[in-house]
Design brief:
This protein is mostly helical and 34 residues long. The protein is built from 1 helix and no strands.
């Protein structure tokens, strides 16, 4: 059970990090377009 919980947490953290990175990259590309 512990391993499965840890795996889920890692997946959530990775997904959140990916979202933040994509949002930051989106802002950067918008600034470059200006």
């Amino acid at each position: 059970m512990q391993i499965k919980k840890t795996g889920k947490i890692i997946t959530v953290v990775a997904a959140t990090a990916a979202l933040i990175v994509s949002l930051v990259n989106d802002k950067k590309s918008k600034n470059i377009n200006k």
